Fold:
Amino acid sequence: MSAPSNKLAALEAVPASLSPRQRWLVLVVAFLAWMFAGLEISSFVLISRPAMKDFLDRQQTDEPAASLSPTTVGAPSEASAADREKLIGKWFAWFQAAFLFGAAGGGWLFGAMGDRLGRVKALSVSIFCYSAITGLSYFVHDAPTLLVFRFVACLGVGGAWPNAVALVAEAWPDVSRPMLAGLLGTAANVGFVLLGLIGCAVPITQSDWRWVLLVGAAPLLLTPFAWWLPESPRWLASRLLASKAKPGVWQRGELLRPPLLNRTLLGICLGAVPVVGTAASANWVVVWADKAAEQSHVDRSRLLVPAGSSVVETKETKESSAAKLKAWTQVTRSTGAMLGSLLGGWLASLLGRRLTYFLISLVTFAASEYLYLFLTPLSSQFQPLTFLLGFAGVTYFGWLPLYLPELFPTHVRATGSGIAFNFGRIIAGVAVMGAGSLIQMFGGDYGRLGAWTSLIYAVGMAIIIFAPDTAGKKLED
Structure:
């Protein structure tokens, strides 16, 4: 039998679509994969400050002469509280940058793997990477090593997103994509809320934070289920139709030259706005709440009792109360985010891709500027505004899983979506490192920092003007 005949026979053996049971299985595993990735993303928002306080106290005892620098592990024994807070804030920025750079690299690496070897294999390896390395981080006892582990784990986080999105987009009928995009966008925020609720029940404190890393290792149990998922028939057909002599994505450079270059650059810009906004602006509300509660020596229960009431506090209860307020702030923000991301795809379908993105940017900009300029974490309006910030600012992530796959043809869809979303993470990583310097310039004032970094949402209102509206169009083969 000739080669073309062999290829035709193989192509005929590929199912036209997955069965309903298979489609649901793909959706559930992809949802869980991105939910646990969200838990992994949020873990360092909660543990960064207590972990750094723990490291600094240990190193102050062991190496009192070490310099106060984010590239060293020590702190001078006479460091002031303000200097200590600046250093903690800068390390928070470094951990965020490690996540962003790692996720960007993972998006490229595992996105290309998804296009060449299959969505299922790439998704499975991504899950294994972020869960196994997070679990191993439990045994780390200094900040620089933990930073390296964070970077490697987040390679897997970055790889999970494009492959989960591509697999779900290709497994389900076109009519379902707006709803599915919203569901997938919600998944990460379910992980945020889940860890926040756990943190409310078991406070994440300086003396007890490592258990969070073991929770982050739990998705190892999901890896075998992901590995045995049915592969995307659309991807299988695309691979069989491709010529054996046809070079790989990176040799062709399709995504980096016309006609796809403009779409790649546009996708990068659109993906960068919410990622920069989340990492360099919105994430600071959690650290801000932790610092404010700790400095005021007010536990969460005192906020609910009449003025003048007597509340006896010990050092442990103060630390525990600050940790609970921090965790509750994450729950508040991420609950809003769950609803926002769920509606992102639906709003894009109802109002159009461009108008939806513009409105998301406008509302998020207004909410974040008001919160950072006029409120404090102990204000009565802080939690409602945090909810609104989460709702508006994460609606993007229900919009992106719908829009980005529409920009690229099947044979480069995972790679294109991964580059578009994850290159924005590189931009965000640079922005976060800049924010780490700004927090020192502002003397540890997270409110002033957030007001400046929230300007990124105004940039989003300008960028969307240049985007094509893909509503009503089928995925391009």
Q: What stands out?
A: Residues 20-62 form the longest helix (43 residues). Confidence is low (pLDDT under 50) at residues 5-14, 64-79, 243-252, 298-312. The CA atoms of residues 25 and 229 lie 7 Å apart.
